Amino acid sequence: MVLNSVQLLENPSGALVIPELDAVMVQPCYFSLVIPTFNESRNIGAMLQRLVALLDEAYADRYEIIVVDDDSPDRTWEVALGAAEQLPRVRVIRRQTERGLATAVIRGWQAAGGEVIGVIDGDLQHPPEVLLQLLGEIDAGADFVIASRHVEGGGISEWGFVRRLLSRGAQLLGLVIAPTVVGRVSDPMSGYFMLRRRALAGVELNPKGYKISLEALGRGRIDRIAEVGYVFQERQAGESKVTARQYVDYIHHLLKLRSRGRVSRMRNQIPFPIGRFLRFGFVGLSGVVVDMAVLYLLHSAASPLGLAWGLTRSKIIASEVAILNNFCWNDRWTFKDLAGQQKSVGQWVKRFVKFNLICLLGLTLNVLILNLLFNLFGINAYVANLLAIVIVTFWNFWINLKLNWRVTSSK
Ligand code: GDD
Ligand code: MN
């Protein structure tokens, strides 16, 4: 049994509400960083050393680190407490009656004295050095700043195809269920961010599962958002706690935030970009003309080319030429201002590939909706097709705006 002179912090209880700065019971400071941990005994020591070395230099005694451990079987809390002996800015909470990443972070923020509150994972997959850039954005006036894998300088070191697909799929689902929350940042799945305490103080929080960033974006008083690119690192020790359960919790959380969506939209003034949508629709119409023209040129024996190719082959080429047409016009016209901020050829190619993927997903959705309306609701085939085209045009527009031609407004 290890005897520590440093005591565990009391675990806050009751409603998940972060107190205003002038109501905190602890010594106020500038920045409080919370580390949620579960079975990170082999990571937490190195993590704390690296953080303290970095923050001591940049913020001297104006910061604190709070480890919130859910009574890990590998006694992570004890290892953290041992480290705290040497690191006076580190404090530890051991939760024995509650469990879950998002609520652990909120409990940590409730116990914190910081004007700025943040969260970082305890397994070194979020590089501590990025903290200084995040704090720099807060100092520059942002209310909320998130470390993103999907902006310039961002990426994922080694994630299998399935995990990438699941992560992007989750984002896509979020853009459909709670667009005004999930669509506010390029990497809503990121667990590495910070915000001004005043943006969340006094708000009753009620997250589910992992996504504390969505809870803040959906319920917080957040106007100015900034993003910083970072590369998600490979885990050195231990394993991820993400299971299918987290995906179920995520959907449940989205539905809860959606019901508040209307309130947060009003609060966060996110007008629907009607002008840009009309341009997108117009370009879509030009694509139909291109599609028809190319189909005629390739398939009709009477066409000047006289190729008379098979219908399927001609249709596939016609669709791809139409997609290329739509992409170029959208890049040069509809999203000109956004494309202008991502000028490299690599970024252009990435946008074109994403545009293709989103259009192909749209096509699948189109066939699904058409069949649903025709077979299930008995709607006339042509009316059903028209409705499907309208719905998918909205889909293509919104997903391309949020996942493809995206730059974070405040940046
Ligand atoms: N207190 C507490 N309670 N901590 C937890 C719990 C819990 O129930 N579950 C996980 N943690 C801690 C882990 O110990 C780790 O420090 C951090 O939360 C992240 O958990 P991981 O299990 O390592 O998540 P991941 O690496 O698969 O996913 C992370 O990165 C993704 C990409 O940014 C998470 O941050 C995801 O939210 C994020 O999407
Ligand atoms: Mn991790």
TrEMBL record:
Q: What cofactors are annotated for this protein?
A: Ca(2+); Mg(2+); Mn(2+)
Q: Which class of enzymes does this protein belong to?
A: transferase
Give any GO molecular function from the UniProt entry: dolichyl-phosphate beta-D-mannosyltransferase activity
Q: Name one GO biological process term.
A: polysaccharide biosynthetic process
Q: Which Pfam families match?
A: Glycos_transf_2 (PF00535), GtrA_DPMS_TM (PF04138)
Gene Ontology terms, cellular component aspect? Answer: endomembrane system; membrane
Q: What is its main location?
A: membrane
Coiled-coil blocks:
none
Annotated pathway = Protein modification; protein glycosylation
Q: Where do the TM regions start and end?
A: 277-298, 352-373, 379-401
Q: Domain named GtrA/DPMS transmembrane: which ranges?
A: 279-402
Q: Which UniProt keywords apply?
A: Glycosyltransferase, Magnesium, Manganese, Membrane, Metal-binding, Transferase, Transmembrane, Transmembrane helix
Gene3D superfamilies this protein is in?
Answer: Spore Coat Polysaccharide Biosynthesis Protein SpsA, Chain A (3.90.550.10)
Residue span(s) of domain Glycosyltransferase 2-like: 32-200
Q: Which domain of life is it from?
A: Bacteria
Where can this protein be found?
A: Endomembrane system; Membrane
Q: How does it sit in the membrane?
A: Multi-pass membrane protein
- Which E.C. number(s) belong to this protein? 2.4.1.83
InterPro entries registered for this protein in UniProt: DPM1-like, Glyco_trans_2-like, GtrA_DPMS_TM, Nucleotide-diphossugar_trans
Give the family per the record.
Belongs to the glycosyltransferase 2 family.
Note the PANTHER family from the entry: DOLICHOL-PHOSPHATE MANNOSYLTRANSFERASE SUBUNIT 1
Q: What does this protein do?
A: Transfers mannose from GDP-mannose to dolichol monophosphate to form dolichol phosphate mannose (Dol-P-Man) which is the mannosyl donor in pathways leading to N-glycosylation, glycosyl phosphatidylinositol membrane anchoring, and O-mannosylation of proteins.
**Mind telling me what this protein is named?**
Dolichol-phosphate mannosyltransferase
